[in-house]
Amino acid sequence: MKPWGRQVLASILVNSIYEMKNYPVVLINTVLSPLSFLLVIAFVSRGQLIPDAIEGGFIMSMFNSGMSLQGDLAHLKNDFKLQDMVVSSPTSPAAYVTGMALAEVIYSTPALAVLVVLAAIYIHPGVAEAVLLVSVLLLMFLASIAIGYTLSTFSSDIVQSFAFSRLISTLFSTLPPVYYPITLIPTPFRYAAYLSPTTYAAEISQNAAGLLSLSSSGVAAAWGVLLATTAALALVAMKKARWREV
Amino acid sequence: MQRADGLDCRGLTKEYQGSRGRRALDSIDLQVPARGIFSLIGMNGAGKTTLVRILATQLEPTSGTASIDGLDVVKQAKALRERIATVPQEARTVPWMTPKQTVLSYLMWRGTSYSASKAKASEVLAKVGLEQQEDVLTRRLSGGMKRKVMVATVLASEADIVFLDEPTTGLDPISRKELWAYLGTLAKDRFLILTTHYLEEAEELANIIGIMHMGRIVGLGTLDQLRAEVKQQYSVRVAAGHELPSITDGRVTRARSGEAQILTTEDEAYRLSRQLLERGARFSMSRVSLDDIFFHLVNRSDLEGTRA
Predict the structure, then answer these.
(1) Tens digit of pLDDT for each residue in B9-61?
(2) Domain limits at A154?
(3) Given CB 3.0 to 4.6 Å as the disulfide criterion, which of A211, B109, B232, B239 pairs with A91?
(4) Do A84 and B101 lie within an 8 Å CB cutoff?
(5) What local confidence, expressed as pLDDT, does residue A187 receive?
(6) Are residues B235 and B189 in the same domain?
(7) CA nearest neighbour of B68 among B60, B178, B76
(8) How many domains in chain B?
(9) Residues of chain B positioned with their CB less than 8 A from the CB of A10
């Protein structure tokens, strides 16, 4: 393994493997968090929106990975001064953040595994739909880690950091129609919902699964917004995130 | 292992955003050979941590330059980071990791393989006396053990320039002495930059001492060189309750306990000692300590007592 791979692995070990190994109770939270909304939606809709809610669970899992990254990076930076130690080492910010972000995915693995089983039972996606869903989730993940990393480098204490994390998570993955079709919410609120990239992610995946009917121009527009948003957020992270403080 | 040639700061200045013109570092000029232990001492807010963070490539200076062994801390940070390691002030062990996992992951961040990191972690932890605790979660360790884990973490690396920002703060006297012994050994083939509040620590360990005050270096050199900067190189301490003889050359400070300290020249110290002996007073005479030099140089002698 090359040094870059070792550096990525070190971040994965610190941010997920060791924590999961030494504190197994944390896994319960990662499973319950995305599934709790799914259960509420399933009960309220009397089972009719279970497929939508499963797709929403996937999106929320991936988006929340980035938000968790923000909290974890800020925690390690401010409370343990770990980032300072890593800055003064050969590790690049890219290797550090890549490893930390992958750690969040590993951390979400139990929840994702449950969702995969539920998707197989309730949605029966074909290969094309699965590839499409994975692509959307990947974009969601990239967008959220760009936000998470950038914010973490600006936060100076953990209370501020978790407040940011909860706020963004609520705005982007709880309030928008991620767990149910956008058609269920009143028109004025739809405009507000379209301010969140998660809405477009949900629309694309719901359309692919046949849960929503979008025109081809609508699908293209959703992809365009999602790609542009992710690229913009990545650019902001590259330009504005503070690896070395000023 | 490469050897560093020197630490070189020229006009190094740091003004934090929102500091309203107050400089954390105020045009520091500093040249120190990169050998052994260079200790920075100073009160809280003197600028020690800011200077260390700039040198350790964690913080950008506002102006001026700094380099170690010819490597500029801003322009050649990448090359410098291959050679440095740091334990920041207030660095803490991650509670969900064991000492072995802490050292291992740090070494992997430095590019060492997993198996080599694992072996090195056990080896270094044994050297600092933590072989029995290497697989215990760090949250179960004492404060002293946690500090040792942090120091062992960076010292396990191959970095030949190591920054230790107040590494012994919070340690009991025995643990502190143990760590001093370890640092002394390591300084034989590395350059350690150590900040401390404990003047006796700098006196015990440092080859070169830098005294910082209000963002400036107000004293720099070996202990003897710093003593030479002080006109009054002798200290006469007189126990409380004894009348002081008349002093022709020197100054007196008095501690809350009532003990008086006279900083004076060698001739005057001997003259005063003779008079005190004749009066049967309890007193001691010695060359000035780093404490005395420090207080003299930062003009803060009133911290220990009021002027007589």
Answers:
(1) 999 999 998 888 889 999 999 999 998 999 999 988 899 999 999 999 999 99
(2) 3-240
(3) B109
(4) no
(5) 85
(6) no
(7) B76
(8) 2
(9) 105-106, 108-109
Residue A135's Cβ-side half-sphere holds a number of Cα atoms within 13 Å equal to: 14
Same domain, B60 and B150: yes
A 10 A CB-CB count for A218 gives 15
Measure the CA–CA gap between B151 and B154, rounded to whole angstroms. 6
The A residues from 109 to 138 touching B (CB cutoff 8 Å) are: none
Q: Which helix (H) or strand (E) holds B26?
A: strand B25-33
Neighbour-count burial for A22-47, b at 16+ CB within 10 Å, e otherwise: beeeebeebbebbbebbeebbeeeee
Beta bridge partners of B236: B262, B285
Closest A-chain CA to B17 = A246
B69 confidence band (pLDDT: 50, 70, 90): very high
Min Cα–Cα distance to chain B from A154, Å: 13
Note down the domain range covering B282.
Answer: 230-307
pLDDT in tens, B257-278: 889 999 899 999 999 999 999 9
**What are the structure tokens assigned to A197, written together?**
């990239």
For residues B287-302, average pLDDT = 74
φ and ψ at residue B299, rounded to 5 degrees: 55, 45
Q: Nearest-CA distance from A218 to chain B in Å?
A: 45
- B193-251, pLDDT tens digit by residue? 999 988 889 989 999 999 999 899 999 999 989 988 888 889 999 999 888 888 888 88
